[in-house]
Amino acid sequence: MTVGDFIDSVRDAAAELPFIAEVRVADQTDYAVKLILSVRADLFIQLYANLDTGTRGYALVCGGQRIHGRDHDAQGWHRHTRDNPLTHDASAEGQRAVEVAEFLREVQDVLEEEGLL
């Protein structure tokens, strides 16, 4: 997968979700990209992917604070739950790999449950 392929996959997944107003490339190199998916002024999704290292960082941000997220680093996958977004959930569910489309569906669930949509 190339950075362009990753961006295209995010744009395709975001197009299926009417609450995402815009997909913007915030930073891009030959091997990494950071995308911002706008929901409203104080609510967005940040997606980071480094294709060389396999690092992924997916976060739902509200009012400047992460309220849900999933990351992959050298230790593997972990989740940041909305109940405790500053800690790493290393449960079986927290360690499960997720693709962008699945993360965006999780975000939709969180937004609906929190009354943010």
Textual characterization of the structure:
The chain is of the alpha+beta class and 117 residues long. It has one domain (3-113). It is 23% helix and 38% strand. The chain has a 6-stranded antiparallel β-sheet with strand order 1-2-3-4-5-6, with helices on one face. Strand 5 (65-73) and strand 6 (76-80) form a beta hairpin. The chain is globular, with a radius of gyration of 13 Å.
Top keywords for this entry?
117 residues; alpha+beta; 6-stranded antiparallel beta sheet; 23% helix
Q: Can I get a quick summary?
A:
The protein has 117 residues and is of the alpha+beta class.
> Fraction of residues in helices?
10-25%
Give the total of domains: 1
Rg from alpha-carbon coordinates: 13 Å
User: Which stretches are poorly predicted, pLDDT < 50 over at least 5 residues?
Assistant: none
What is the distance, rounded to the nearest whole angstrom, between the alpha carbons of the first and last residues?
A: 32 Å
Write down the secondary-structure element order.
HEEEEEEH
Q: How much strand? A: 35-45%
User: What is the count of DSSP helices, taking H or I runs of 4+ residues?
Assistant: 2
Report on the biggest sheet: 6 strands, antiparallel
Give the overall silhouette. Answer: globular
- Provide the residue-averaged pLDDT: 93
Structural class: alpha+beta
Question: How many β strands by DSSP?
Answer: 6
Widest sheet, order of strands = 1-2-3-4-5-6
